[in-house]
Amino acid sequence: MQQPEAGDKSRSLPSPCPPQASLTDVSFYTRRCITEDLSWSLVTVPPLTELCLQHIAHNFENNPILNELLPEHQKKVVERLSTSLPLSVTANRVSHEEYWKRCCMERWQVCDVSNYGDSWKRMFFERHLENILKFFIPNTTDPDQVLDLIPLCQDYVRKLEINQFLPPLHVDPKEEGHDLSDAEDEAEMGEVYKHHYNLKELITSLPHLEELHLIYDVKSCGMNFEWNLFNFTELDCSNLASAVRMCRNLKVFKLTRSKVDDEKIKILARSLQYHPRLLELDLSHNLIRDHGAQAIGKLISHSKLETLNLCNNQICHLGAQALAQGLAESSTLTSLNLRLNFVEDKGGEAIGRALLTNTSLKCLHLGSNNLSEPTAAVFSQVLAQNTSLTSINFSCNHLGLDGGKQLLAGLANNKTLTELDLRHAEVEQETDFRIHEIVWANREAVRLASLQHPSTEPL
Asked: Residue 264, class by beta-carbon neighbours within 10 Å (0-12 exposed, 13-18 middle, 19+ buried)?
């Protein structure tokens, strides 16, 4: 190719611009240049509002701003908040259920919000508080872990279910330099060693607490098993009684599988007398005997209890007679469970005679109480006169052939009983069948009546 000679001005270098393109042709100078950097983004810069919301979410712990924002902006900030933020920052500022749902789902595998009034925030604070109490070790765990949480959770906790209370760690007296040769000092040290966390300060600071379920037990103790790990001491009982008495909004109280004996139930019963709102009391699977049942009998007649569960205790006929006296004086109790006790016929007859005048009880469970024909004879009169009972359980007793026939005779004109359990009660098969027919007819009549009058609560 011929090169232009030096100094030859007739041949100039080619122009970078096509000859037909003028300097005013904008399309040429606005060509978009694509970089070879694969991380290069062509997305436009976010709006200033979006950048501000990102900054608020990122610095929420140091500068929590939420309520001052518009509702649509609050939602965007909450979606960006981390679930690891301190509760002191989020508890009383973040009310959005979606945030607390994320907190629950990330912490627990099973989350049934229907057990918590469909509130994720309530679920989080109740379960969080329960977890702290389950692993609280007296004299070791800092009490501020619980006390500092009270102002954050007191508006949201409605129910507490605590199935474990850890005792203090055992300390060898020799290591502490104490001389415990005296037997009285040893007993005092043993009592202090076995006591558990005192719920009084916590419970009295929860104004909306309505349900309290407690089990003084230790889970998964393994090779560290000792019998005194499972003791519900007198000090525990006194502290709990004082706490429950001051919890004025409490409606359901359950203290099960905690070795509650007569002396301890007397303390609790005195504290619960005249309680303004307590409706349900569950003391099942304990060690309550006749003297304890007598205290509960007084409680029945001096409270607004509607449901009482004394299943699997050691109540005999004297205790049953005391309960019967309270039942005769009660106008609120609707359910009584005495399954797996030892009331026998003397106790069963006393309860039956109380039901001849009682008009509130609807459900009675007397299964596995060594009852026989005399009890059935009294309940034959009950079935003929009482118009409030809807369910009776006589399973696993010894009513016998005559007992079954007497119950059948009492049911002849009964229109309210919709359930009568006679399994393993030694009742003749034909008698059992005829009783079942009458009960089924009553149940069907109630169902049809509820269809005709939907506003009426079914029995």
From this structure: buried
Angle among Cα 316, 319, 323 to the nearest 5 degrees reads 130
- 53: its two tokens: 């919301």
Instruction: Supply the mean pLDDT for the chain.
Output: 88
Element (H, E) at 29: helix 26-29
393 DSSP assignment: E
Q: Collapse the DSSP code of 151 into the 3-class scheme (helix H, G, I; strand E, B; otherwise coil) and give the result.
A: helix
pLDDT surpassing 90 at residue 254 = yes
Contact between 328 and 361 (Cβ < 8 Å)? no
Eight-class DSSP state of 222: G
Question: CA angle 157-158-159, nearest 5°?
Answer: 100
The structure tokens listed for 302 are: 């001096």
Cα–Cα distance for residue pair 383/362, rounded to 1 Å: 12
Cα R_g (the chain), whole angstroms = 36
Which DSSP string do the residues of 321-384 spell out, in sequence order? HHHHHHHHH-SS--EEE--SS--HHHHHHHHHHHHTT--S--EEE--SS---HHHHHHHHHHHH
Structure tokens at 165: 């209370």
Helix axes 262-272, 290-301, angle to 10 degrees: 10
Residue 31 has a pLDDT of 55
What is the pTM assigned to this prediction?
Answer: 0.85
In order, the DSSP letters of 224-266 are G--GGGG---HHHHHHHHHHHHH-TT--EEEE-SS---HHHHH
Average pLDDT of span 188-206: 77
Structural contact between residues 330 and 362, judged by C-beta atoms closer than 8 angstroms: no
What are the φ and ψ backbone dihedral angles of 93, each rounded to 5 degrees?
-115, -35
- Condensed to tens digits (0 to 9), the pLDDT of residues 403-419 reads 999 999 999 999 999 99
With contact defined as beta carbons under 8 Å apart, do 414 and 437 qualify?
A: no
